[in-house]
Design a protein that fits this description.
Blueprint: E1 11-14, E2 17-19, E3 22-26, E4 31-36, E5 47-54, E6 57-63, H1 69-77, E7 84-89, E8 95-108, E9 117-130
Antiparallel strand pairs: 1-2, 1-7, 3-6, 4-5, 6-9, 7-8, 8-9
């Protein structure tokens, strides 16, 4: 019987470049918007779920390495609005393929006894294909 999938070994490719030294990944987050259909005559709120899902964001934290082409490509992409193909691969070989743009790239200098890192946020555009 299969057990939980471990996080170690997960990878992320952004625009054909592998992002190295990933500390953690959060997302993608799937949701739907609510459509309020409450009439003035109703005695309780009524909602419908939007038929268009929101694939949300994928956030990751990486250790900075000047040779990490993937992380540096993310920094360069901020503000361009360029949509790039991304593939998240889990340790069991499950993949989530999606298009996204880099919404933010935040460097963390940290303190004594800490490595430089960066927090990167990708806004997913369109559907996620799971395989």
């Amino acid at each position: 019987m299969p057990g939980p999938i471990v996080a170690a070994g997960a990878t992320l490719t952004v625009a054909t470049s592998n992002v190295g030294f990933i500390k953690s990944i959060s997302g993608p987050e799937l949701s739907v918007s609510l459509i309020d259909i409450t009439a003035l005559s109703d005695t309780a709120r009524k909602f419908l779920a939007s038929p268009i899902p929101n694939s949300g964001k994928l956030s990751l934290s990486v250790f900075l390495d000047p040779d990490d082409v993937g992380a540096l490509a993310c920094r360069t992409a901020v503000g361009t609005g360029a949509i790039v193909a991304c593939v998240l691969t889990l340790s069991d070989a499950t993949t989530a393929s999606f298009n996204a743009f880099v919404e933010s790239w935040k460097m963390n200098v940290g303190g004594v006894d800490e490595a430089l890192s960066a927090d990167i946020e990708l806004q997913i555009s369109g559907v996620i294909t799971w395989a």
